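In line with agreed milestones, work has continued on tokenised descriptions of protein folds. One protein thus recorded appears below exactly as we store it:

>
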Amino acid sequence: MSDGFEATEARLGALIREGLAGDAASYRTLLRELGAHLRRYFLRRLGPDRAADAEDLVQETLMAVHSHRATYEPERPFTAWVHAIARYKLIDHVRRGRGRTSLPVEDAEALFAADGLFAGDETQAAMDRRDIERLLAAVPPQTRTLIRQVKLEGRSIAEVSARSGLSESAVKVGIHRGLKALAARFGGRNR
């Protein structure tokens, strides 16, 4: 991660935690700094000629952050949580037709691509890690470790087998059963 991103995450993360703990001054500072952060976020995506739309989106996002602040999990990256909210506000804005006039046709595909809204941001990676960890929490710890090592870290079955003390067949079966359980739980079954 870049130093600027880490500094922003550390600063805003500290402010939200202090605000959630009842520090009104920290919460006001958070909203002010978050407003500036979101303004840059939306202007990069909409363009400088859409400043009024960007300002509307900043206000909508700040209201959503305020309304849903109790759902923020302090051990998670705050900027990833905020950017997820901002992303949905931007998508809703475009769907309402307000953003179409400023988006060239060739940019529309990038806007809705999996990482299009976060191009250049480390935020998408943080959000992806958070989502993967939430998914993996649904399987037993040993299975979670096997899936993480083979599917996410790219280790070989043989390497994981040697490290875990399990046979290669047991590693394969564990991964298969874990992925099957995740698919069943989160709607990945063929219907």
Notes: The CA atoms of residues 61 and 85 lie 7 Å apart. The first helix runs from residue 3 to 20. The chain is about 70% helix and 0% strand.
